[in-house]
Amino acid sequence: MGLLVLGNRFVRDLESNGALAVRVPLEGGFEGRYQRRMRATGYESLHLSARGLGDLSAYLRDVHGVRPPHLGKKSNGQAAVGDRYFVPPVLDYRLERMAPGMKGIVLWLIEGHILSSQELAYLVALCEADTRIKVVVELGGERVFKWFPLKDSVQSA
After folding, report:
1. How far apart are CA 106 and CA 97, in angstroms?
2. What domains does the chain contain, in order, with CATH numbers?
3. 44-68 pLDDT, tens per residue?
4. What is its EC number (predicted)?
């Protein structure tokens, strides 16, 4: 019964703040329950790792180029190894193709402790610019599932 009450409070806090920082138990399991609660209230969930994202603004909101691993093969006539492929923006693509009746999208970033304070500030500004985007960043471990506004962690960093 506790998750029903806490899950509703988590949803309300995320909707009012836009971006939350969470500390989760290291054995896992709790974040899936809260993601399921967000999907039940009308949000699409996007679960990503913060490692290897590169430039957040380019990856989330712009068309960006990626190079697959070259596996030792070299392409002719180029300084860089391998071809570059262009990928649509992750958030904008999903927002354009969101099902009718959905409230928005929740970007859940694991391993968020590697993000700089500038990147965390960008995520807060992203939620303020578009109210359909909500962000949850896992900043570390704790004995119990805790959350607080992400802008508080940016001010302290």
Report:
1. 15
2. 7-156 (3.40.50)
3. 999 999 998 888 988 899 888 887 7
4. 7.1.1.-
